[in-house]
Design goal:
about 240 residues, alpha+beta, four-stranded antiparallel sheet, 8 helices, about 25% strand
């Protein structure tokens, strides 16, 4: 286990005019979370989670405030949460999560991204059974052994703890996300380099160079779609 989460995040954040695109996607996600419950993160766990993740991407405060104010203002703009599953070159597996106000547009865009880059759409469940929903929390300033000791003292169970460069990366059950963060906050951790609930492949695969180049192009096209929030896959890209 271990996908070099900080490097993946940095790659996403630097890929295009991209920070602005990432910020726009967070704006939609924050709006949807705030609209589904109270527009107050203290009373809305889904919103609190999105805001925690937004912090690790340095989303500006004005974008967060604008999205929450939009939800408070009674906007009736409706979004659907969609998940697509498919296959890339050499049987690689991909999950695409989207938020959209136009289901037909998004389905066509995602299908085109797969089809034009050596992949194809699958049916619901054709890929996701090979992934585990996982909380990933990372921070700097402690070793894996120190992190484990803190979690044991707080009576919090996790799946794994790894060291990645200057960070400790903790993998846990999704329902332990808040407990893990609170255990570290109580020990003085104030910032997290990673704070996500992701779909983690049970087994990564390595592609030959030509297939990997095609696969990376497909992932880039998918991630660049305005309606796509997250893309998960089982390919070791060597980040």
């Amino acid at each position: 286990m271990g996908r070099k989460w900080n490097n993946i995040k940095d790659k996403k954040a630097s890929k295009d005019a991209n920070t602005s695109r990432i910020y726009a996607k967070f704006g939609v996600e924050i709006y949807v979370a705030a609209k589904q419950g109270e527009p107050d993160p203290e009373a809305n766990q889904a919103l609190r989670f999105v805001l925690e993740r937004a912090k690790t991407y340095n989303v500006p405060r004005h974008i967060i405030d604008r999205a929450i104010d939009k939800a408070k203002g009674g906007s009736d703009e409706a979004y659907s949460e969609l998940r697509y599953e498919g296959f890339g070159p050499n049987g690689s597996m991909v999950i695409v999560d989207a938020l959209t106000n136009n289901v037909n547009r998004t389905a066509a865009d995602v299908r085109s991204a797969f089809g034009k880059n050596g992949g194809n759409m699958g049916v619901s469940g054709s890929v996701s059974y090979m992934f585990d929903k996982t909380a990933v929390i990372g921070f700097e300033g402690k070793t894996a052994d120190e992190a484990l000791e803190l979690l044991m003292e707080a009576d919090v169970d996790v799946r794994d703890i790894l060291e990645e460069e200057d960070s400790v990366i903790v993998y846990a059950e999704p329902d332990q996300f808040n407990a893990v963060q609170e255990a570290f906050r109580s020990a003085g951790v104030t910032e997290f380099t990673v704070a996500e609930i992701t779909m983690l492949a049970q087994n990564d695969i390595t592609l030959p160079a030509d297939a990997q180049a095609q696969f990376e192009k497909m992932i880039d096209v998918l991630e660049d779609l305005d309606d796509v929030q997250q893309v998960y896959h089982n390919v070791d890209l060597g980040e």
